[in-house]
Amino acid sequence: MQKSRILIYLCLLVAYGPVGLGDIPQQPSEKAEDSEPCATCDTRQHSKLLRLQSIKSQILSKLRLNQPPNISRDVVKQLLPKAPPMQQLLDQYDVLGDDNNDGALEDDDYHATTETIITIATKPDSIVQIDGKPECCFFTFSPKIQTNRIVKAQLWIHLRPVPESTTVYLQILRLKPVTDGTRHTRIRSLKLDVNSGASMWQSIDFKQVLQSWFRQPDINWGVEISALDSNGNDLAVTSPEPGEEGLQPFLEVKITDVPKRSRRDSGLDCDEHSPESRCCRYPLTVDFEDFGWDWIIAPKRYKANYCSGECEFMYLQKYPHTHLVHKANPRGSAGPCCTPTKMSPINMLYFNEKEQIIYGTIPAMVVDRCGCS
């Protein structure tokens, strides 16, 4: 049975990606009365456990993370913006993460494709501050994101409620190092009519500014935001006070996505109680909360599925991993592998290690069909 487990591992290694040998589940001690269907069930269990380990490795690898971001549930609640674009993402989200695209991803479509980035404001560098002011706002972006084409960029600012209707003058200044006594350049000014008793989110087109920052990252020192009412009170939430968690400014950036080609295939579908011994697709729901991965905002779970079953020697050896398994077992007892022949992506909303909120597509995470190869 140990040889069987190693062969299952080799099949999954090529189909899904690296899984540590230490993650191979141990086979319960065999008993004389064990029947063949039970042996089949054991094989399925090994395939399922290895699939779960593979999913963990795949997600981190495809998101280019060395380890899960160290973000607790409490931190998520504190940082998650209570703003319209975030709510729209959550409202339109398919909780189970299924994708109805009838096509499998090409082999080179491995890494996650970012579609939307939500970057929360942080404290700017001291080089642009005078007496510790301003306390906001700096936005950081990875070099990889800076190479993408910006489709849309919105700066979101939350305004505190006012006791009576008033006119608010919203001003955004571009920060720069203090050299000649000046530390900013005006970017945008808006005149807003605000009703009494209502707080509100205000969005501002930030595409041109962001394009400038991406072309010249060295000029990105952040911005200073103010929203003064007729009495000179600043209504902009830039340094949140107690009770204002999730109301700090943030940038919502949409970048281009790369279309993917597809191909068709066919295969068997089974359930856990099926007596089928041939290669088949079985249901598997992944729960990220079971992983302790609070940094994934949505989906909290998704239908991943897995492949398991026997493949006869008569199947054509169409793919290189059949040769790999035969090399590991030269006597030829392994045969072709039961592996995915069609996979689809999932969309994911998550925090990265810089506490930025990312909405993107992770390819090849759902097994749609299984076959022998």
TrEMBL record:
Cell location: Secreted
Limits of the TGF-beta family profile domain: 261-373
The organism's place on the tree of life at top rank: Eukaryota
Gene3D superfamilies, sorted: 2.60.120.970, Cystine-knot cytokines
Alphabetical keyword list: Cleavage on pair of basic residues, Cytokine, Disulfide bond, Growth factor, Secreted, Signal
GO cellular component: extracellular space
Major place of residence: secreted
An MF annotation (GO) of this entry: growth factor activity
Signal peptide extent: 1-22
Homology family: Belongs to the TGF-beta family.
Function: Acts specifically as a negative regulator of skeletal muscle growth.
Subunit structure: Homodimer; disulfide-linked.
Name this polypeptide is given: Growth/differentiation factor 8
Gene label: mstnb
